[in-house]
Amino acid sequence: MTFLVSNPKYKRRKSKKLYIGNVPIGGDSPVVIQSMTTTDTRDVKSTLHQINELKEAGCEIVRVAVPDKEAASKLGEIKKQSPLPVISDIHFDWRLALEAIKQGVDGLRLNPGNIGDNNRVKEVVNAARERKIPIRIGVNAGSLDAKWGSAYGADRVHEAMVASALEHIKILEDLNHDLIKISLKASDVPVMLEAYRLMAEKVDYPLHLGVTEAGTPKGGSIKSAVGIGALLSEGIGDTIRVSLTGDPVNEIEIAKAILKSLGLKNEGLNLVSCPSCGRMELNGFEEMAKTVEEKLKNLKMPITVAVMGCVVNGPGESKAADIGIAGGNGKGVIYKKGEVFKVLPEKELLDALLQEIDNMIKEQGEKLPVSSH
Question: With 0-12 CB in 10 A as exposed, 13-18 as middle and 19+ as buried, what is 238?
């Protein structure tokens, strides 16, 4: 799946280009959506099932937890069957990192300074470099080394995070490994924003954006949209992950919506619908909008659909869409490509709209059951 940079006003910060498996990161590559499995990695069947669900939803890279040797030993089997590049999440134990590399993972999430012994660090980094495996340095505000907190204080957490990341970066660079990706996540959005902005001024490695421990789907989606969206709008960010409590498939929908709202993703449904104000004259409007959204949620073809319920903004928005309806006083108009297509009683509008969308999809070679509700 390809996410197209379609906004001509968008100018991304220049970053080095690397590959996670066959997925390009940084440089002139589109922004990539990532997620992480919630399954026990030792359970290969469940892990692969969730990875396939993530792939179907639009995820492009997946990370799996590697808490012990047994989990590490399953990575090769997962990698062989996974439809997505696999990143192993390693903390502290250098042996798990070596086993993950041996198993053929596409990337490591590893802070080399946390391994301890220099010889162990060197062994891991050399193995990664030989196999051209990128390493993501991930600094989280909640698990920041105490020495950095003491050095910078509570009001300079973002500076402490950057200093910690730079220390890990230097370890890799001194060992001639420059396939590096960086994340600086915090649950506090302003801290996260300032950390990434500061890091963007200091290095040209790709940046992986996210608000960590963002919360449940409702609140976490808002925090993620604000934090990730703000940085992307400034041209900062090469990959993103929306971290939500619960099923990770939910993360993908929000991530796609963030990219789409900034014009960085040219795929699927762009729904334009009015806020149901006192001018609303179309009965059943809310259900119409929800039905269109549900029917087209997995569509790959880019399409803008307007569902409008009044005569003030309705005609203009519907004309600007690929297809749309504007209704009121018991009837409505279907607009297609800016022109009046049909005028119908309001009870016939939804079926007619869905049927015509179905026709448009079939013309592009896709199939989607949108003709009934």
Answer: buried
Instruction: Give the whole-angstrom CA distance, residue 89 versus residue 121.
Output: 16
Residues 257, 258, 262, 267, Cα dihedral to 10°: -40
Q: Tens of pLDDT along 70-123?
A: 999 999 999 999 999 999 999 889 999 999 999 999 999 987 777 778 888 899
332 contacts 350 by C-beta, under 8 angstroms: no
Query: Which amino acid, 148?
Result: W
What are 286's two structure tokens?
Answer: 């809310």
54 conformational bin, left if phi > 0, alpha if psi -120 to 50, beta if neither: alpha
Produce one character per residue of 65-95: b if its CB has 16 or more CB atoms within 10 Å, e if not: bbeeeebbbbbbebbeebebbbbbbbbebbe
Residue 285 CB contacts under 8 Å (≥ 6 apart), including other chains: 273, 274, 276, 307, 309, 327
Residue 35 identity: S
Give residue 154's identity as a one-letter amino acid code: A
Read off the DSSP letter of residue 317.
Answer: H
Q: pLDDT for 202-238, tens place per residue?
A: 999 999 999 988 788 899 999 999 999 999 999 999 9
In the numeric block, which tokens belong to residue 85? 């590049």
Determine the distance from the C-alpha atom of residue 232 to the mean position of all C-alpha atoms in its chain, rounded to a whole number: 12
